[in-house]
Design brief:
Length: 347
């Protein structure tokens, strides 16, 4: 018995010294303290011993069992201590941080500029009916200008305003505001718009626009020019020039398209060097928005008396504005969620 105890003890200490990790320790625990162990075999022999020796051998075996359990616990503590050691001097790793999407930040910046000019921001619905997208804006059914605004129609029951659709421009907000708010007002309204366009570097079936309009008694075209010039100089740079070209929009009369002077080839020497600017194609001007004086038909449709009120309106593409500002050459970058692109615009 004595020899057996010594043998188990020695072997345990040898095995214990070889333990490397927690699972190794568990293996040894099962080997020495589990159910089928040599120690238990010795325990089972106790009843066969002379009665006078049973007590002392029983105690010896219990002492060994406790010793093994204690030693194993010490070993496990030492290992887990080592495994969880933290090196406080190790340089911290920066947690990955999200950033505001470049379109959102451009949108915010634009809204900020107009808010400073006294405009209120109104968020319109992306689902509109034909009345808001077309009729109210002087684009009657069958009118050829509807073709310009190729549209996604929705397969849900039509209301009194005609079929539901995904709005093809933010101008829908004009009807919402004019029917519900008494002039004067100055409104800016950013949001998504949808057109079934083939996707390429400059087209997407979904993009962002910002609509602006002001209605009051004494509004004229020079107010429009002043507001847009102020915006362009604030947003791009103080030396930017605007050029108004006559144009046609059904909802404004007169209407204009507006170009800004190209900020890429301001440096005429670059042009002189024979390189054609890739942004303005050497023209020196870039088209950025449409605008005009609100058409009397629009006022009539929305219940505002055109003999008492006048207004101007403008609309521009936020994607295009952002592409120009940051020299981004493909609209698809905005929507592909490529972190390498998005990370270039930390806000
Ligand atoms: N709604 C036009 C478009 O999507 C943009 C526009 C042009 C809006 C002239 C206006 C405007 O308010 O006066 O192309």
């Amino acid at each position: 018995m004595e020899k057996e105890i010594e043998r188990i003890k020695n072997r345990f200490y040898r095995d214990c010294a070889d333990i490397k990790d927690i699972s190794g320790a568990e293996e040894i625990r099962i080997r020495y303290l589990g159910r089928k162990t040599e120690l238990n075999t010795l325990f089972s022999k106790i009843p066969t011993l002379p009665a006078s020796q049973r007590g002392s051998w029983g105690r010896r075996l219990n002492v060994l069992k406790e010793e093994i359990a204690r030693r194993l616990e010490e070993k496990i503590n030492a290992i887990s201590d080592k495994e969880s050691k933290i090196d406080l001097t190790f340089p911290a790793r920066r947690p990955p941080k999200g950033s505001i999407h470049v379109l959102s930040s451009v949108n915010r910046k634009i809204c900020e500029i107009f808010k400073n000019l006294g405009f209120s921001v109104v968020e319109g619905d992306e689902i509109a009916d034909e009345w808001h997208n077309f009729e109210s804006l002087n684009i009657p059914a069958e009118h050829p200008s509807r073709d310009v605004f190729d549209t996604f129609y929705l397969d849900i029951p039509a209301g009194s305003g005609g079929k539901y659709l995904l709005r093809s421009h933010t101008s829908t907000v004009q009807g919402w505001v004019m029917k519900n708010v008494k002039p004067p007002f100055a409104v800016i309204s950013p949001g998504r718009v949808y057109r079934p366009d083939e996707v390429d570097a400059t087209h997407s079936f979904m993009f962002n626009q910002i609509e602006g309009f002001v209605v009051d008694k004494e509004i004229n075209f020079s107010h429009l020019k002043g507001v847009l010039l102020e915006f362009a100089r604030e947003f791009y740079s103080p030396d930017i020039e605007l050029r108004f070209r006559p144009h046609f929009f059904p909802f404004t009369e007169p209407s204009a398209e507006v170009d800004i002077s190209c900020m890429m080839c301001k440096d005429k020497e670059t042009q002189a060097g024979g390189k054609t600017c890739s942004v303005c194609k050497g023209k020196g001007w870039i088209e950025v928005l449409g605008c005009g004086m609100i058409h009397p038909h629009v006022f009539n449709a929305c219940g505002i008396d055109p003999s008492r009120y006048r207004g101007f309106a403008f609309g521009m593409g936020i994607d295009r504005i952002a592409m120009l500002k940051y020299s981004i050459n493909d609209i698809r970058f905005f929507y592909s969620n490529d972190i390498r692109f998005l990370n270039q615009f930390p806000v």
